[in-house]
Design the sequence.
């Protein structure tokens, strides 16, 4: 199966709303071995000026990978998920992600480059609140390995 | 306690840590993140796709490596930009039968890479390695210094 070169420039509109839960922030923080009290204790977060517990710097990957799934599961894309390798990742935060936020992500396919028998695909998720406030931009490149790679 | 930009120098170390990683850590990260790719928990599947064994999620490594920055700056939301390239997988051995023994160790060192007084930010460059080899390249966190 080959990657559809016409993917470049495609975008997928914001789909389901992701509600940021306090327990999910705690669970994710623990999973990345974060110990800062502002992830766990609302009072500690408020003392730093936040409304509620704050997400760790890479928490937005949950929302971004849900948006990416729209592309990976798109039959027109031709991506075999078992051959996907994460090549690079970037998070740019426009404002903190806090428990209670309702987020949506619009996915853009910025680049598709043939590499060997496979392809490097760069996507960008523009994450905002349902009220339209820009929250984070995440950029991710995945290498879809060809059959001989 | 509060860090100011004038206290910092390019090349200065801001912190370092050694993270022991077990298969259980990968299962926890899978559940927390929603990334259930079996290469991160199923040995036979990982080998069937030509990997040397179960490997850590790149995002687990990226996410845990930045904690040294968050703890240093005192507010995790001060990390306004964070990027890396994933160059080498972190193989996590099965130590399920040896309580307290890690299946891999990730070493993290943070150095001040650049200072930007106009935007009141510092770039922290992270060196992240496992088994003596770099696993992340160009791991850079931009931190707002109040």
Sequence:
């Amino acid at each position: 199966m080959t990657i559809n070169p016409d993917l470049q420039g495609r975008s997928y509109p914001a789909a389901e709303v992701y509600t940021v839960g306090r327990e999910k922030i705690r669970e994710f923080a623990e999973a990345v071995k974060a110990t800062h009290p502002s992830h766990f204790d609302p009072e500690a977060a408020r003392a730093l000026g936040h409304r509620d517990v704050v997400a760790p710097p890479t928490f937005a990957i949950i929302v971004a990978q849900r948006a990416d799934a729209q592309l990976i599961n798109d039959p027109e894309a031709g991506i075999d998920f078992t051959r996907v390798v994460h090549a690079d990742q970037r998070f740019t935060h426009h404002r903190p992600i806090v428990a209670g936020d309702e987020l949506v992500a619009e996915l853009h396919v910025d680049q598709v480059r043939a590499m060997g028998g496979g392809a490097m695909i760069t996507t960008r998720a523009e994450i905002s609140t349902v009220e339209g406030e820009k929250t984070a931009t995440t950029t991710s490149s995945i290498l879809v390995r060809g059959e001989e790679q | 306690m509060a860090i100011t930009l004038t206290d910092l120098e390019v090349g200065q170390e801001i912190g370092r840590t050694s993270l022991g990683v077990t298969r259980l850590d990968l299962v926890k990260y899978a559940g927390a993140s929603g990334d259930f790719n079996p290469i991160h928990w199923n040995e036979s599947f990982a080998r069937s796709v030509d990997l040397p064994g179960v490997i850590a999620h790149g995002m687990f490594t990226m996410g845990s490596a930045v904690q040294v920055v968050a703890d240093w700056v005192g507010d995790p939301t001060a990390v306004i930009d964070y990027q890396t390239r994933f160059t080498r997988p972190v193989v996590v051995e099965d130590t399920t039968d040896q309580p307290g023994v890690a299946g891999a160790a990730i070493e993290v060192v943070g150095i001040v890479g650049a200072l930007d007084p106009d935007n009141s930010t510092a770039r922290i460059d992270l060196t992240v390695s496992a088994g003596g080899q770099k696993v992340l390249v160009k791991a850079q966190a931009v931190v707002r210094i109040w």
